Records
---
Amino acid sequence: MSRELINLIVQATGESLFMVSIAALIATAFGLPIGVFLATSRKGELFAAPAVNSVLGIIVNATRSTPFIILVVAIIPFTRLIAGTSIGSGAAIVPLTIAAMPFIARLVEAAIREVDAGLIETASSFGASPLQIVLKVLIPEALPGLVLALTLAVVSLLGYSAMVGAVGGGGLGDLGIRYGYQRFMPEMMLAVVVVLIALVQTVQTAGDYLARRVNRRLRHR
Amino acid sequence: MNVHQSLTAAEPVETLSPLAQPPTTADAMVRFERVSKAYPAYRDKPSVQALKDIDFAIPRGSITGVIGRSGAGKSSLVRLINGLEKPSTGRVVVDGRDISGLSGRDLRLAQRSIGMIFQHFNLLSSRTAADNVALPLEIAGWSRRDIALRVAELLDLVGIADKYDRYPSELSGGQKQRIGIARALATRPNVLLSDEATSALDPQTTRSILDLLANINRELGVTIVLITHEMSVVRQLAKEVVVIDGGHIVERGHVADIFTHPAHPVTQAFLSEVIGDSVPVSLASRLQPQPVAGGHAVIRIQVRGADAGDTIVGRLARELSIDVALLSARIDEIGGQHVGSLSLGIPGGEAAADKAASYLSQNNLPVERLGYVA
């Protein structure tokens, strides 16, 4: 493979990582609180607001059931509003974030719900406020699950980031389609796939390691 | 004759009226004033009346046992004391303050003077022993330095200072409950609520935890409320006992009084759990309804009181000039009183058995004719 093509791969990998990491950060910033709220706002729970919970749940489900490629096209006006353009890696961050946010929220909800309800009662019994319960009990206790949830979200985002390539988002997907598919360069297609696999493996391995490190339920020190 | 027919129902079991002498309410740490608690129907669950017309006081500095079967309302009762639940009617006064009337920040402040320990310990798996104990102090806004000092003091008090930086997953059940106790005492509460705190522990560990609680009561003067379904826990630790069933208080008073003269069937059932009121299987299988030539008539006497039972077999034998066979015996001590039962074999036919029964009745020991053995 020529030096030029290798440069293309390196550049595309950088673009993909840029899109994914920024989208993951923003999506987590919103998805984490939404997920915590979803996990604590049913009837009789810490921030009981069953109506808000239901509405939020419907919105989250609606977003998640829209196929990503449709979502990207459907929100182009919104993407233009935020990013000023709908083309390029920067603009791609908008649909990536919108898609990852409800996904992360649901994963966070599941992780938080895994925390023993007895611990909430315990903290309440010594006078903890709902916010203290979230910050000092729920999130620390759910941390291994949260790390795995975010790992899964980043892996999914890598997949999505390849899809935005199809609509001019740049990155590895763009490279694979333009060079590998449209220019009939199977070696380029192979290279893109190999890089994506390596990225997913790295992210998953790092996530698993981190989740084990923060899991004190296991006997290791 | 019916095997279980009681010969002497005439024996006047001294019926205490435990509700007649409530502890002086003036010195009550916790006072329930006509409290009832109902849970409304939700989804497919019907509404539940968990507690009805609860009215009693827990004396300051006491160790009070609340005993009842599963679903009797024990958990609701204890959660009313620390404001985790609100009564449907009536009020709960803790240390002179109506906790059932507090909410938000006022309630949270009041809860800091009420500690609670749990059956499954409820420790945070993500925190070390020391950090678990520190949690209520962090919540109460203590400075890091004060927390460190207090935590060291508490771990020392409960005897696990060497487990300071261990995680709960590395500790035994007894050690975890010690952390739970240290955590509950962190903010220097006046009341310690124990919700089945020893139910998940083995008998030996249970004993050591109960000893620790007794020490804490003695040295810190903390009022302890023990919720349990185990009679042995009440017997070992409590001075006062409240028996609840179906959401009602069915009996209450001093442990020794209640358990030497249980009036309510639920209390009697709990008692027999400790003293083994049932006839031993080996004996029961040999019992026959008809007299056996050359055999024994089997009678059972219930032993209740300070001195009962210890000389009765000898006296009976002397009085009637017969050999009394001791077939089974189980006598326990509750609050300094003997409680238990003896199964005796009386040789010499029906006449001797009748004489023995009337002698025992005269000595204020209720007699039950069980049958005959060869």
---
Amino acid sequence: MALLHVENLRKSFGGLMAVKDLSFHVEPGEIVGLIGPNGAGKSTVFNLIMGILKPDRGQIFFKGQEITHWPTYKIVNAGIARVFQIAQYFPRKTVYENVEISAIPNEIFTRAPDPTPKTLQSCERTGLCEHSSHENHCICREELPGMLPQGGLRRLELARAIGTDPELLLLDEPFAGLSPAEVDEISHLIASLRNEGQTIVLVDHNMRGVMRLVDRIVVLCFGEKIAEGTPEEVARNPQVQEAYLAGGGF
Amino acid sequence: MSSRAVRFSILGTTVIVMAVVAPFLPSKWMTTLTYAQIFAVYAMGWDILSGMTGQISFGHIFFVAVAGYTTGLLNLYVKWPIWATIPLGVMMAVLAGLLFSVPALRLRGPYFSLITLILPLAAARLVIILADWTGGELGKFGVAALCPFPDFKANQYCNYYSLWGVMTGVGLFLVWLSTSRVGKILEAIRENEEAVEAAGINTAKYKIFAFAVSACVVGLGGAFSVHANEAIFFNSLMSLTTSLEMIVASVIGGMGIIVGALWGGFLVRGGEQVIRELAQLKLPIGTEGLALSFLERWATLIFFTLLIILLFFARQGLLPLLAGLFRRRRGEVRGG
Amino acid sequence: MDQVFVIVERIVIYSVLISALYALVALGFTMIFGVGRVLNLAHGAFLMVGAYTAWFAQQYLHWNLYSAFALAVALCTLLGVVFYQGLVRHVQRSPIVTLIATLACALIIEELIKIFFTTNTQLLAPFISGSIEIHKTTVITNRIIAFGASWLAILLFWLFVHRARWGKVILATAQDHEGAALVGIDVRRVYTLTWAISGALAGIAGVFFASWVKIDPFMWRDPLIISFAIVVVGGLGSLKGSIVAAYLIGLLEVLMTYSPSIRVCFSFRCFEFLGSSWVGVSSLLVLIAILFIKPEGLFGRTE
């Protein structure tokens, strides 16, 4: 059974059809790339899955359960987490405190265990530890997120997403605005998450950048799916080449 | 200011000083501080909702009124004892808070604040319409006293320490809550609500909870104030000025840290008393001396002006400002 | 049957008259919000300053009402500019701080008036005293003047916004202040101008409000509530919506005045259900209901 299954999803803003009858599915353990030129509706798809936007029609299933009209927090607790393209953090909380919020359960009256170990684990998996710490013991950074470089912010976003124990991770343009060195770091990080068995959907407009990372690619153009398959198949597809040439190449 | 230990020790020191200092106070000051303690409870109650989540309420006096009128009127007409009517008053305030919060939280930012401003204004009109019961703007006397002593001095002590107990209890609970997981979530909501939702937290639930706690605490203060006054005073239960003074107190002390509101509450009410004392004096200027009695009427004005000045220059409030200075002197500030 | 007709006629005439004043009261408030996205909680206090200025000039300086009126409008215009340049400009970025600061200012003005003029209710002499008969309804002449002046002010304002060069600049800024800044409009000057206009409108409204109702240090609350109610019903920042809303609210208030009240009693203690004591409450309750049910306002919001 597919982990995520999107069926005939449609969303328009006024006269503009942002997503047009889109269907795709994600199997457990795979990395799917959702690519397309700018304005193809990729981020809208994520917003629809996360319940931030409501679709005009169509359905979204997660683990066989329909989640189309659920509120965001419920979708997150069901096991989907999303990394935003523009970092969404708490500017006056330290890195540790930022990550900690994801480790706190959505219960006011609870005897749930201390969130500290889980917070540290999230920091460790995303490499947000203090340099001065011991080899096998992570201490989260104590600085404010505003002092982190772009790559550090992306790690923080990943740490906050991982903290919710997602079965499916949605990454929105994880390489946007990063220096080449940082792109390498983050793609290593994503690769290591994949090796741990994490299912990921990755949005990018840059096809070459994600080719090495993904198992399968879904190509969007003006809200429609124009191709689907392994990276090699998609790269050979003439329709895709045309779309990318029209959209300024890749 | 973030650590739980720091906040608890500030709270502890303050309440211990308040407890020890009482017998040495002149009578006038004792009365002032008795009511300052209630006001500190209001300010802390305001802070747990508005200071922590950033949803600024202009209408917290509404919860004071709901609890105060409930306990006062039940006591007056149904003759129930205060140990029954005070909890009922608080329950009514919580209920009003819950009823109000569910739709109100759909409104964001300024719109939320607007509607909270309207609520006490509407309530005041209703109280006047129902004047046959509520006494309207004149209020009602003859409500059961908090303390049953015939002796004035004993009564004053009893009032002081009862309200000290309320303030200490509320302070301990709110400092604990504000530094617990719930407090962390509330702070996070203030900084970035979408990001909290993305962390799998139902922010509406937490905000409603904060609303209920806030209404409960402020209502508790209101209910006690009615019985300490032995009267329902329209002007103290319905005053828009008091509603805004809760914000003044919180902004002066520092928003969102509870102990800031506690200190701010004392600074506002204590400051007003200082101004009243000054008004008794005469400056040795001219042959007659310059009477300062005009100062008395300027007290509220001075505090609202101070609020605006703070909004301009020290929006974080005095306690965090002091803490910052203190830390800098000891060279503990990390980073740049 | 004749009796009913007289009452209906009276309700129609009174609500048409008062609604024009309400529209004028809300106009400055809605313009400040429409152009600068600022909710000015001191708007009612501006009206109060206008009212007290006119009263003071009349009572103590023995000016005639026309010069007193001119002084009130001039002072309120100045107050609008000073208020913007001295306060709002610096806190505008944070809507919440703006709300707190403007409300604090309203209370400061209330306190100042209490100090200098006591809490007593004052009366402002009307422009023209006496009353006239319209069909079978007696109307105080001064209220007809207030009605005429309100509509005149609204029409002049409309003409200014749609015809005058600076009016068009204001409109452009209201629609998109970043875009306006990009095409070389000095946005800060536009804001200053809107605050001046808003102050002047508040001054005019204040004098007529005072001669219609009363003058006391708490009088700023009603105009503020009316402004809220009107802009919330009419959609924040929309002029046409505001006028329609003013007429709805005016009608509701007048209906309340003339609706038969039901006396409800329990054991010799009574209250009036509906009737004239509900005049202020009804618009508040409508306001709360609309904010809860349809927060974007009945006629949508011009964003």
